[in-house]
Design a protein that fits this description.
The structure holds two protein chains of two kinds. By secondary structure, chain A is an alpha/beta fold. Chain A contains ten helices and 13 strands. In chain A, the strands form three sheets. In chain A, strands 2-3-1-4-5-6 form a six-stranded mixed sheet, sandwiched between helices. In chain A, strands 8-10-11-13-12 form a five-stranded mixed sheet, with helices on one face. In chain A, a hairpin with a 2-residue loop joins strand 2 and strand 3. By secondary structure, chain B is an alpha/beta fold. Chain B has four helices and five strands. Chain B has a five-stranded parallel sheet with strand order 2-1-3-4-5, sandwiched between helices. In chain B, strand 1, helix 1 and strand 2 form a beta-alpha-beta unit. Chain B is globular and about 25 Å long. The chains are: A alpha/beta, B alpha/beta. At the A-B interface, helix 5 of A face helix 1 of B.
């Protein structure tokens, strides 16, 4: 919510017009309903074209109310000067009644709008309000562009760090092997080799996740809406996790009500389920349990994934869906992940106008609760 | 070799492999090494242990975890030396999330080095700053 003070320059050789416009603008109540912002005016006046140009060259004006016919330089000429010197200001040109061809030339020369003399205060306000809405929109767009750049820079910086880390780790292990500090037997370097392979696998998965993430964000991931059999889909994923789960004696139970199928994109639902289930297994304790339940209410699908794992603190929870955010402590030391899984899940959930809720207690377990709403398909939305 | 016999070093890094490699290297150089996996873990250890030197990664739970830990160390144990290591060099223009370059004057680290440096270079920095 910003308040914009719009610096306005009124240029007319008639003092009545100058003072009149100034009074009308300054007395007008603050304009609101400008895409969340409000605006008011500060008004400067000028009598001649030359005076106007001097002011315009030295100060930044948001709005210029300019008479077409001035004693020295013509209004149109002033517009030419502004264009040549790349001075940005929104211009409303005041023209004599019936000079429609002047109005047309004015807009061709860069004027935003025109106002025909004689005009009532209401006509002035109405024209000015149109211009102000335009200015407010431009400022908002600029602000969003800046924010976007900031976010992107931050993301890229963290990405560089995240990719450099595994490279540094692998390089460190290779140097250890190169130095033969633990002797000539290759078996002495088993840990170095296994850890290196693990880190490389992590990098590869991070790159794949990044591709997924950018594709979802840019809306270039094509979607095809189908009836999804959640039982079948989750069974495939669980089968894939079976090897890891069995090794650590983790049981996975499902309570899925599939009587009414959910209409969604199979690939997206698969990514969501896969992330939830693989996290539930990865961060679980040996001999622990995973429970997946799912239910459809009307056009909403609720998925709950509960684990008896290491849980997380409030701080960790707050960072959970941020890109590259991973919980790093003694307990998670040997757990691999790109840190992008949950941010991808969040973006997918957004596509379904859904929600995610997390409850967790350290050393007790974590529950993820996701709600997805059926939508009518079509291309994935861009940055929302 | 290290100058002081059996100096106690705390190494903090959220990358488990870098943490192990750095700890192993310093142990083989004769230091007594304790490790922490991040800012929270380090703060816990600092509550009840004293160290002659801390070697800290910069970006862990937070963008400026290393600075936070360093600040805490210097406040409670000013004689403890601190080396901050970062993998994100100045060339990226990234200000480590802790404000402008002017604000860096409050960061009391005894050395600030690039993570890409070889361990031998870390050792010479340590020998330079440890009494």
């Amino acid at each position: 919510m910003n308040h914009l003070t719009l610096k306005t320059l009124v240029v007319d050789d008639e003092i009545g017009i100058r003072l009149g416009v100034q009074r009308i603008l300054c007395m007008h109540p603050t304009i609101d309903d400008l895409h969340g912002d409000t605006a008011s005016f500060t008004v400067t006046t000028a009598e001649t074209g030359r005076d106007a140009l001097d002011l315009l060259k030295n100060e930044q004006f948001d709005l210029l109310i300019l008479d077409h016919k001035l004693p020295d330089i013509q209004g149109l000429e002033i517009l030419e000067h502004l264009a040549k010197d790349k001075i940005k200001t929104l211009t409303i040109m005041i023209t004599a009644y019936a000079s429609l061809d002047v109005a047309v030339s004015a807009t061709k020369f860069g004027a935003f709008d025109f106002l025909a003399k004689p005009f009532t205060p209401d006509e002035l306000i109405s024209t000015v309000e149109k211009a102000i809405r335009h200015i407010a929109l431009m400022k908002k767009a600029e602000q969003l562009e800046q924010e976007k750049k900031q976010v992107r820079f931050q993301f890229l910086s963290v990405l560089a760090h995240e990719l450099k880390s595994p490279l540094a780790a692998v390089e460190g292990y290779l140097r250890i092997m190169d130095s033969k500090i633990s002797g000539d037997s290759i078996t002495s370097y088993d840990n170095a080799i296994q850890r290196s392979l693990c880190r490389i696998d992590g990098m590869r998965r991070m790159i794949m996740d990044l591709l997924d993430l950018t594709r979802i964000e840019s809306g270039s991931k094509s979607r095809s809406i189908d009836k999804i059999d959640i039982t079948h889909l989750s069974q495939n994923i669980i089968d894939g996790l079976r090897a890891i789960a069995d090794k650590r004696m983790i049981t996975i139970e499902t309570f899925i009500d599939n009587t009414v199928p959910f209409l969604g994109d199979r690939g997206e639902i698969e990514i969501i389920l896969n992330n939830l289930l693989s996290n539930a297994v990865k961060y679980n304790r040996d001999g622990g349990k995973v429970e997946l339940s799912s239910r459809k209410d009307g056009s909403s699908l609720t998925i709950e994934c509960k684990d008896t794992g290491i849980g997380m603190s409030e701080d960790d929870k707050a960072r959970l869906f941020k890109e590259f955010s991973r919980i790093k402590n003694e307990k998670t030391k040997s757990i691999e992940g790109s840190g992008l899984g949950l941010s991808i899940v969040k973006k997918l959930v957004d596509l379904y106008d859904g929600s995610i809720a997390v409850t967790s207690e350290i050393d007790v377990g974590t529950t993820f609760r996701i709600t997805l709403n059926e939508n009518k398909g079509g291309p994935a939305k861009g940055n929302q | 070799m290290n100058k002081t016999n059996a100096s106690r070093v705390l190494v903090v890094d959220d990358d488990p492999d870098i943490l192990d490699q750095t700890a192993d290297f310093l142990k083989s150089a004769g230091f007594i090494v304790e490790t922490a996996t991040g800012e929270t873990n380090a703060m816990e250890l600092l509550n009840h242990s004293h160290y002659d030197l801390a070697v800290l990664d910069l970006m862990m739970e937070n963008m400026d975890s290393g600075f936070t830990i360093s600040h805490r160390i210097k406040k409670t144990n000013p004689e403890t030396k601190v080396i901050i290591m970062s993998a994100v060099t100045k060339e990226t223009g990234f200000n480590f999330g802790s404000g402008t370059r002017e604000e860096k004057s409050w960061i009391k680290a005894d050395a600030f080095i690039n993570k890409d440096l070889r361990f031998e270079q870390l050792l010479s920095e340590i020998n330079r700053i440890l009494p």
